[in-house]
Amino acid sequence: MTVTDELLMEQVQEGDERAFEALLSRYEERIFAYICRILGDPDESRDAFQETFLRVFRKAKQFDTRRKFTTWLYTIARNVCFDRLDSKNRRGPDISLESLRDAGVDPTPDIEPDIRTTQPDPLAFAENQELEAAVREAILQLPEAQRDVMLLKEFEHLTYVEIAEVLHCSVGTVKSRFHYAFLSLKSLLSPLAGGYP
Amino acid sequence: MKCPDEKALIDWMAGETTGPEKHELDEHLAACDQCAKAVQALRQTESRIQSWKPNPLPKDLHGLVMSRVRRENTPADAPSFLRWLWLEARPALCGIALAVIWIFLHTASPTQQTSGPQAMLFCGVVWGAAYNSLFRLIFTDRLKKTLMDWKIAGVAGLCALSLAMLIAAVTPNPPSFETRRWYASVAPHIPEWVAILLPALYSLISLLIVGIVIAVTQKVETRRLILASGIVYSVLMTLDLWMCYLLDMRLISIPLLAIWITSVWAVSLALSWTLGRLCTK
């Protein structure tokens, strides 16, 4: 039987490193992906990822084990990312593929070279890459509040209630932001090929 | 049932529609072609959104986080002050050990005179290690938030001061020797003990000012801070060296002085860095 996150957090509160490592293993991939989507820069994401889990460890005693761990974890990850964006004068909303390229950041995902070359169909792979870049740019064009909700809902699969808790707003606000974000993306992405047949 | 709007369909797709409402919508979608098409269009959008693939987790990140957590996780049964001293002050302890050994060797053979450059170089090495350690103390993540804690500031200050006084009092030709002479010449009313303390104090104050500024901003990585400590130290050493030069023109020629300063910088920075890396892993 799988031990719940909250039970593991109780052990972390006692200073149990193994319990912390179990939580890290459970969520590291999701949290890294989430941070990368917010920050865009893989190097900065590495630092933010470490800071996120160190904060989890340091603030473990402040965690109320009656609450859901994932909500708390995403709140910390988001705060770490926005602290970093704040320190860069909140450049987040202005991120575009061009600005990323200007800044010397590869806007394409950090995919291992062997994966790139082992694609069976180079044309399809190139189309997928194009689609992915377009989706990324479309999401980055969303207003910050809508993008926040979109990332947590579509990629992290949090419920409206959980997202409201992470963002400290009402469920109605979350719903409304998600609707607007989804419909904006629908109109932005509809001219593109690919995706659902 | 009346055809739902797109927002209701989005909620339904997101799994946010529950209970009788969901049941009713399921039945309607199974029967209504127009709504089925609308759902298909929304699913296409969702599928495209999902094409933004996640960045793979770098292999070393798990280990990096765990090593930092282990370092922070002080066992409850360990004496916290001694553990803190052992973990964080090892470079300074190495520096002090070097100083003690050198002083012992020197006093064991009183006929051996230490030249200015040798003393400078040695003091540079010791101070490099000490500054490195002090900066590590200040900027360790766990401790930087408590920089203003008098215990930490006091211990760090006392370490620096003790070391400075030890070197000033025991070595025959330390940097502060010339400084002392300088104070005696320009301000003879200053007591000798003040002249001994002042060089250590200005070093310490500079160190603490830089430390406080960086700690307050709390945005700098430890590696950069180790480098910063070396730079601060080098600047202070340069001041000392130039003071020596101005006090006694016969001490060393200008080209040699430049080489000497550069060597002191390089050696103390390199040693400071190496000790920091070796002793705090």
Task: Provide structural commentary.
The complex is a heterodimer of chains A (197) and B (281). Chain A is an all-alpha fold. Chain A is built from 10 helices and no strands. The longest helix of chain A has 23 residues. Chain A starts with a helix and ends in an 8-residue tail after the last helix. Chain B is an all-alpha fold and 281 residues long. In chain B, 77% of the residues lie in helices and 0% in strands. The relative contact order of chain B is 0.10. About 13% of the residues of chain B have low confidence. At the A-B interface, helix 2, helix 3, helix 7, helix 8 and helix 10 of A face helix 1, helix 3 and helix 4 of B.
What's the structural blueprint in terms of helices and strands?
The complex is a heterodimer of chains A (197) and B (281).
Chain A: H1 5-13, H2 17-39, H3 42-58, H4 69-87, H5 97-102, H6 113-117, H7 122-141, H8 144-155, H9 160-167, H10 171-189
Chain B: H1 6-13, H2 19-31, H3 33-49, H4 61-72, H5 80-88, H6 90-108, H7 116-139, H8 141-144, H9 150-170, H10 175-186, H11 192-217, H12 222-247, H13 254-279
The total strand number of chain A stands at: 0
Largest inter-chain contact set: A-B, 53 and 41 residues
Q: What is the first-to-last residue Cα distance of chain A?
A: 39 Å
What spatial form of chain A do the alpha-carbon principal axes imply?
globular
In N-to-C order, the SSE pattern of chain A is: HHHHHHHHHH
Main beta sheet of chain A: strand number and arrangement?
A: none
* Uncertain regions spanning at least 5 consecutive residues of chain B: 108-117, 141-150, 171-176, 214-223
What structural category do the secondary elements of chain B indicate? mainly alpha
Share of β-strand residues of chain B: under 5%
Q: Would you identify the regions of chain A where 5 or more consecutive residues have pLDDT less than 50?
A: 92-101, 103-119
Output the number of helix runs of chain A: 10
How many angstroms does the end-to-end distance of chain B come to?
68 Å
Helix content of chain A: over 70%
> Radius of gyration of chain A over alpha carbons?
18 Å
Number of DSSP helical runs of chain B? 13
Strand fraction of chain A: under 5%
Q: In which range does the helix fraction of chain B lie? A: over 70%
